[in-house]
Amino acid sequence: MLSSPASLDPAVAKVPESKEESSEAVESGPGPDWILVIDVEATCEDGKAFNFFNEIIELPCILLNRNGDKVAEFFTHVRPTLNPRLTAYCTRLTGVTQAQVDGAPTWPKALEQFEAWLIAQGVADKDMLDPKVTSAEIECRRNKVLIACDGPWDVRDFLRRSCDLDHIPTPFYFKRFVDLRKYTQDTVYRSYNERRGGLDGLLAYWGLTFQGRPHSGLDDSRNIARVVQKMVAHGYVLGANWERTSKSGHRHLQMLKKDLVWQRGREWAIGADGQ
């Protein structure tokens, strides 16, 4: 992701030895059958925040089964269309080159490739991916697929709004997800501060160190997957702690002087118990 990691308080940089160390009960139930670990990279400019429309340029996914075993990986670059030229800052930060995105599919095609991969891996089928199909049996199967991210931004601010921009109905797997930082704070150990330390801090809490290139979507996703594996190994059952509360909510895209500005609202809600 595009956040800058800070140092983590050494007092919380430890893995809980048992479930008894949790500040509240571990979530009950069987949990998801499939965990999709995703950390995208997007266009960016130095010093810009939400007045720069960030378009996805890397779409990675690490597929884990319910036991935390890695099953497969997906990756594609994505070609931005609003600001097709990458800034020098973006290339320095992410390592993504202009040539790589120029030869990549646009977001709608990249999403098609991703969903074809989900079908090939047995994670989803055409009925699950069709938003018009809403039977109880299909909804139950959809609820067995869970995206896991380091923070809320990947789904809430990047993946979902990319679909909005291209008028793509919200895929079921983007409607709810688990924010691992918040899960760690709310469910595992309350003294962990989800707003400090970035991905490096989350890894340190679980006794891990970053492997690979920071701000590489694939490397970031692999490291987040290692956190999930640690959680599963310690007996924690992941559940969604963010969900989309309405079809359109209060978020919308607004054209302003030919620039797309993201209007932040209350379209998303966090589970009251962090689950």
UniProtKB/TrEMBL annotation:
SMART domains noted in UniProt: EXOIII (SM00479)
CDD domains noted in UniProt: ERI-1_3'hExo_like (cd06133)
Domain of life: Eukaryota
Keyword Hydrolase appears in the UniProt entry: yes
GO molecular function: 3'-5'-RNA exonuclease activity; nucleic acid binding
Signal sequence annotation: none
Residue ranges of every copy of the Exonuclease domain listed in the record: 34-237
Annotated region described as Disordered, given as residue ranges: 1-30
Transmembrane stretches, start-end: none
Keywords, in A-Z order: Exonuclease, Hydrolase, Nuclease
InterPro entries the record matches: 3-5_Exoribonuclease (IPR051274), ERI-1_3'hExo-like (IPR047201), Ribonucl_H (IPR013520), RNaseH-like_sf (IPR012337), RNaseH_sf (IPR036397)
A Pfam family this chain is assigned to: RNase_T
UniProt-recorded name of the protein: Ribonuclease H-like domain-containing protein
Species of provenance: Catenaria anguillulae PL171
Lineage, top ranks: Eukaryota, Fungi, Fungi incertae sedis, Blastocladiomycota, Blastocladiomycetes
